[in-house]
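Standup notes
- DV: blocked on the single-chain target, sequence here:
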Amino acid sequence: MVRFTRISPAPVSPLARPEQVSMRDGVRLATDVYIPGGDPVPGDTILIRLPYDKSGEYAFIPLVAEYLMTRGYRVVAQDVRGKFRSEGQALLFVNEVRDGEDTLDWIVRQPWSNGRVAMWGDSYYGYTQWAAAASGHPALKAIAPRVTGTLLGEPVQRRADERSGDVEWAVTYLYPVSHFHGNDTYLWEPDWSRRDFAAQVERFLTEVGARSLSYDQWYPRPVLLPRFPENTPFAARSVPVLHTIGWWDNCAPLGWHDVTEIEKHPAWAAHHHLRIEAIDHESHELLEPDTDRVPERSEEQVRALLPRTLNPALEFFEVYVRGNGDVASIPRVSWNLAGTHEQRTSATWPPEATRKIDMVATADGALRVAGTTRETESTRDWIHDPSSLVPSSAEDAFSFLRELPDEAPIGDRDDVLVFTSEPVLQDVDLVGPIRAQARVSSDGPVMDLFLRLLDVRPDGSALRIARGQRQLHQAYDYGDLEIDLGHIGYRLAAGHRLRLHVSSSDYPEFIPQLGTGRDPWEGGESERNVQTLVLGGQHGLQLTLPILEGELA
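- DV (later): unblocked, structure below
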């Protein structure tokens, strides 16, 4: 028997007025309207469109709306098409431009609206902001997407003539069968001790009694329907953006991709404001290792979280929606230097004073600042065994900072290569993008390469501060990989070391290779592979780090 938890709509908040808003095709979307003080006079509105139940505990939208009303905003919270109380089919991503535009049309016709609308939200309800902006609707004055991206949830695509690409997240295929299966949410995971993931999904769908349209459009043969007009939201009329990314958000690569895209569109870049916080996807903060952590937030804890979560957006909306204050008062970049609790500002990202330092991995397991002479080229091998995979850092990748795992024990495995620096003699501020170059090969057809950069404390425990991954096809022959480890804003304290873990799996967060080249989601027979990494010489493993202050040993 397949075990899962089914979550149905929670009762509508007594503060809300429920509505059914018709879209252009006649489908009605369940919408809650919150009016401060019940006063129907026209005012500014904040729209939140989400698939996680506008009335439920998970997204705590009623508490968000209550807080926003204290600032005089009307709040419109809506279940997206096919979710919870809304009609229509639950289909990921592709309806959000039109439905966002139609909802904006409806808002501006209401007697309580003055025609000015902003949007706020995390993850998928950050994505719905990009979608609404892509419609070019004139009422949308500003958006504040957090921990999200315009390519959120899209399966990895690799052209046949490309040898390298990204490694697929397991959540790419699990999300459609849990959150976009139908109106309700189905909390279910496969048996991770087995590798027949596709077959397990089929058994789950049979048990539930219905298929997931979103899953079927992605597996086994992806049909990638267009999300945006002209395939990008940035072809539309630009909208002021307060764009929040978390240092430990597992979806941060999607946010950084959008930062790069926005730089290519001057109209969007002109009022793009970047905010980077020391948070993970679920907004847990980086706290000291001995801080008590609770598995679930109480209502009191949620209310305490709201100012930190909402005030930056409210300050942004005060200027861009209400016209109060000077745009110049809003930093172009506000970023947290993790390890100090400092929120700093700069005119650019990375700050202009940042410089790059190359570090090389050596045959004796060291991580050293690159010198004028190179070590003689050598290689290191390890075994990728699909029956004994390198574990992911955290049980829940979306709540990494709630778990705050010690990464050091992972380096004790035979299938993890470890390279460690000398202790730094002074605090070193690492600020900006991290990149690596590696030449690798395998005796199997496909090889995955994972890099994790750690801060090793004097007591030997280690915190992951950056990571990246890449996949090589036709791996029998050496291939050169460029690995993006994301961006960092972190103080490496005096006496601490940097450590780099190199492996070929990160399970179950990423779908592991079988060693045969077969579809890893389908599963089947597996084989052990010998993986090879080049060290030293012209093509040895090299890490490029950004330094704002301090010197590496």
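- Follow-up: The CA atoms of residues 10 and 56 lie 5 Å apart.
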